[in-house]
Design goal:
Largest sheet: 6 strands, antiparallel
Shape: elongated
Number of strands: 18
Structural class: alpha+beta
Low-confidence stretches: none
Order of helices and strands: HEEHEEHEHEEEEEEEEEEHEEHEH
Helix content: 10-25%
Amino acid sequence: VPKVLPEHLQSTRTRVFVGKDAPDHTASVTYSGAYRSVHEDNSLNFDDFKRNFKVDVKKLNDEVLEFDMSGIDASIANTFRRILIAEVPTMAIEHVFIANNTSIIQDEVLSHRLGLIPIKADPELFTERNAEEQPSQKDTIVFELDVKCYRENDRIVNETVLSSQLKWLPKGSAFSPDESDTKFTAFTGSQLDVTNQVPITPVNEDIIIAKLRPGQCIHLEAHCVKGIGATHAKWSPVATAFYRLLPEVLLTKPVKGSEAESLKKLCPKDVFDIEDGNLIAARPRDCSMCRECLNAPDHEGTVDIRRIKDHFLFSIESTGQIPPHKLFTKAVRILKEKCSKTKQYIG
């Protein structure tokens, strides 16, 4: 009984083959009896998973996290991607109460633009808003925008309305739905106590909200609530979250001399280098699958490009509301909660 699969089966099991026109062997082999004829058990083994699963961080800053995740199926990698986009909660402007708007931007368009401004607030400090209850400091963040455009000598003041002009109201709404003293919110104290004295602001201060001319003005209140990207994209905490399979670039024969120089120049991503007169794939990670080396008539059959099925190059770009490394941690926690609920339902 063989301890490992024959080489051709192992290759199709673990690699995607990149052809001139299309990739081949793209599907994951998940059926436990797929290799029964060669006495190989293809069942999922948790000990093997723990041994093979690895996460290697390549880049981390305030906006971007890039890491390698290997030893998992594409379905799990895609689960993390979808959770990051649609299920990690954030705070975003949901209700806009307009007292005056004489700009050329319609009220509904202005409200939509405000909703897409990312707000730097920790969503874990707030609860989800109950539509049947009056907003409180635990579920609603209130901003005021009061801007008037006017001339001052030879210049125009407040011609451009920016997100930096949104003023946070930690004590709640100043607007009343009628002429009584009742406000739109029912704050019982300052929201600074909720945020541990940390002020709440837009992530970026230079987002253009509107353009005004002298005499025009905007006065409104914007109320933020907690939500997820599955409800509306404004609650999505990522600008993008994506992955690609790790490329594998192989040379089918030794390549030297002018052929090596020609093939090196042919690659737009500079994947190849020449060492001791021989062509090598020095940077296969940078390969973009452009297939220039595959389609060149002079180099047909020289290069074999593959992708490793269980090795993912993951990239998370945060909108700035939540640091990217915390986003991935939250996605793992959400997936864990989903698995626990599923286990409870079927148990």
